[in-house]
Amino acid sequence: MTDPKIVDITLAGHSYPVVIGPALLENAAYWISPLLPRQHSVIITDETVAALHLPKLQQNLESNGIKLDVLVLPTGEKTKNWQTLERILAFLVDAKIERTDAIVALGGGVIGDITGFAASILRRGCNFIQLPTTLLAQVDSSVGGKTAINMPQGKNLVGAFHQPVLVLADTDVLATLPRRELLAGYAEVVKYGLINDAAFFDWCDTHAEALVAGDTSARAHAIETSVRAKGFIVAQDPHETNGTRALLNLGHTFGHALEAETGYSNALLHGEGVAAGIVLAFQFSTARGICSAADAARVTAHFNRLAMKTSIAAITTASGAKLVAHMLQDKKRQQGTLPFLLARGIGQTYLDASVNLADVAAFLDGTFSPLTLAAE
Ligand code: NAD
Ligand code: GLY
Fold first, then answer.
1. Which residue has the CA at smallest separation from atom 28 of ligand 1?
2. 13 pLDDT exceeds 90?
3. Is 60 exceeded by the pLDDT of residue 335?
């Protein structure tokens, strides 16, 4: 086995390793077995991932004496609902899962989020392990303990903070990920450079094409750097209460509005919304006179080079007012308005609570004038 990288996520009262490297699924027992007091576990996955990656994981765990029950769920965002949560909980109870058995989530953010939430409420909290199989899940959703399901009224409205006991990010599984899904995850990688690490953005600018084309060492470096960055931020603000963790939402307020307008559908994947949202956050920062036009242009060009959508027109014809109305459904809404992640430059993101939503609507409509801003 090639030596993997290990990033420790160190939180008050709970720490866990994120293991990053090739061939982790076919060697999973090495990492998982020591965490199972009675060598019994459950794997929750989706149909797509089950067909591609479940056999090697199951074979390795069972041949090392771990008794397994496996639940395969339908693929896709619609799985993150109440009915499926109930199905998972019933399955776990029928399998007589105990708090320390460590429920395994094998899949992308959908499987990780709903399995983590089930683990957080079953028996008031069971151990769980993340085996993320998308780039997005490896660099973002599997780390940091946010779990959730969707409601008809909106995404991720019901959930809990529940940290895993182990994350195994097997870089080999990314070989089967469709390019579009890979690019969506890549937007979250670039995000870490743009938040507070300009040197990492420079690295992304140099290595983006190689990473997307399948360069495994570029992928491993990007995942390790992203996980380290996320871990550092989450450790300072595990429950998103002091504004530090909010930095991870760069591009997400604009992105969520675009996702909501396109019905959280295949028309715009979450990471695609984040990429467009990041570009809009930089362009809005420039329009407000706080970020150089050169930095905003560099960010836009970076995503354009990868043929990712960077303009509202490429996504929707909705008005600025309609998109702002979507933003106001955001969980981060406070006293009727929203704090915005803006940037003073690449690697200089900050939370701005003074943004006027009428300015945002005008900016989205292409009619924003910084002269109006002076009157605020
Ligand atoms: P996903 O789980 O739906 O996976 C995307 C697609 O890729 C699915 O069709 C899946 O079956 C397929 N897939 C997964 N691994 C594969 C592989 N190795 N090879 C081929 N196909 C594979 O979506 P996602 O993009 O991983 O995650 C999006 C979800 O994550 C959203 O629900 C979002 O709300 C959530 N999220 C959560 C957090 C958090 O902090 N908890 C952060 C970001 C996003
Ligand atoms: N994905 C943002 C967070 O974990 O806080």
1. 109
2. no
3. yes
- Our answer on whether the CB atom of 144 is closer than 6 Å to any ligand 2 atom is yes
Query: Rounded to the nearest whole angstrom, what is the distance from the C-alpha of residue 250 to the centroid of ligand 2?
Result: 10
Specify the ligand 1 atom closest to the Cα of 156: 34
pTM exceeds 0.85, yes or no: yes
C-beta separation of 128 from 165 below 8 A: yes
Q: Is the pLDDT of residue 145 over 90?
A: yes
| Residues 156/332, Cβ–Cβ less than 8 Å | no
Give 180's contacts (C-beta < 8 A, 6+ positions apart): 269, 272
327's enclosing H/E stretch is helix 320-327
Element holding 180 (H helix, E strand): helix 179-196
User: Is the CB of residue 140 below 6 angstroms from any atom belonging to ligand 2?
Assistant: yes
Does the Cβ of 188 fall within 6 Å of ligand 2? Answer: no
Residue nearest to atom 3 of ligand 2 (CA): 248
| Whole-angstrom distance, CA of residue 274 vs CA of residue 154 | 17
**3-state DSSP call for residue 373?**
helix
For residues 324 and 358, give the distance between their C-alpha atoms in angstroms, rounded to a whole number: 8
* pLDDT for residue 374 is more than 50: no
**343 in Cβ contact with 350 (< 8 Å):** yes
